[in-house]
Amino acid sequence: MGGLAMTYTYQHPHPAVTVDAVVFGFDDADLKLLLIQRKLAPFKGAWALPGGFVRLDENLEAAARRELMDETGITRLYLEQLYTFGEADRDPRERVISVAYYALVKLSDHALQAASDAENVAWFPVAELPKLGFDHERIVEIALKRLKAKVRYEPIGFELLPVKFTLGELQRLYEAVLEQPLDKRNFRKKILGMELLEALDEYQQDVAHRAAQYYRFNRQRYEQLAKRGFNFEL
Amino acid sequence: MGGLAMTYTYQHPHPAVTVDAVVFGFDDADLKLLLIQRKLAPFKGAWALPGGFVRLDENLEAAARRELMDETGITRLYLEQLYTFGEADRDPRERVISVAYYALVKLSDHALQAASDAENVAWFPVAELPKLGFDHERIVEIALKRLKAKVRYEPIGFELLPVKFTLGELQRLYEAVLEQPLDKRNFRKKILGMELLEALDEYQQDVAHRAAQYYRFNRQRYEQLAKRGFNFEL
DNA sequence: TCAAAAGTGTTAACCATACACCCATGC
DNA sequence: GCATGGGTGTATGGTTAACACTTTTGA
Question: Taking CB atoms and an 8 Å cut-off, how many pairs form between chains A and B?
Fold first, then answer.
């Protein structure tokens, strides 16, 4: 990207623009966050959000997807813009404006894809994050707040689960994200009452207790209902 | 800003970054939007959102406030980041990433401040907007959606009204923003039940009907209650 | 005296919450 | 047979929604 001696000249000062991604996963117990360990200064050796510079011919969301692919190998994910961080002094090198995204991935698809080319990549439970470089702790905090709010009025929780899941898994996911216990009977009544879940003719195998039935989220049905004014709410 | 022959050189290409503001007002009947008429290409003569380039030493929100002051004279307003628009081709000149804000102002404070130095400035009812330059129609659409959602769970509607207002004015504001009629008795019951409004010993003057009592929003009280888990909801 | 908006309560339907036991399975 | 999580119903209290008339004032 740009030859060795290549430079770019403008008549007005331009900030650098990056995208950073807060990638969430869920492993049936904890909400987790994907971090990379920086190999370069500043904050060399520190953990930070995956991200990088936006190319001039590339949309912002495409840049976020590209960086995630390059740095972590993750390709299929729910991605949404979070907020843009542009404090004048947030990067010690030059003025850097970062458009932050948050992403939800099915950990089951990506659990083993831990390391990539070069950088160290790892999942951390959100309750036990290391110190992060730049202002990334603030970005994570805002992403968590957003996730917590959004999961209640849009059916995005399913993005964190495998396509087939049990109601117990779904409930544990909500409990982890909302950080509060939920009543089992009320949870089931409510979620099944929305008629967005399809019960499959399939049950858990080899579990040391009664096998749970699997369900699948019916997105088409949700979109139909949403058009007619239905509101997901949990 | 930058001397005549001054240039800025970087080793990687940098996009330009602007802030644009969607400024809402309310005049006791319609929700209105503040637009400026462009004097320069591109989109010369077209109406567009107020905005401009971010300076290198200036935070994003500060840039938005500065542009609003310069272009419209507006200083006291509620301002919140909306979304960042970065399609690679959204500006015909060069790559421009725009961090959009939305603002709520008390029209009563600013109604007469129509024109400023140079550019033509005007309020338009949101239902009767002219064609806008760039992708500003999309930005306005997203701002309206956000306002409509947010007004229901945070007490930001008051930012659009004078400090003293009647319950009728407040109801008309909500009806305008939500684009639906509300039941008067239920509306009053709900809003007064929150105990966020202070009834003043003051009534309308010279109205051709029974004079309405004035109320004032008690922000302190709201913040106290919010800390203890209270949720505004309308 | 008319027009215009202010102000005021009750009822019925619905929804949210709290709560406890039996079931199926593997070890 | 025990430990583990799956699966199920009801009763109560609170919240929302629908609804109509009287009051005050200026023109």
Answer: 100
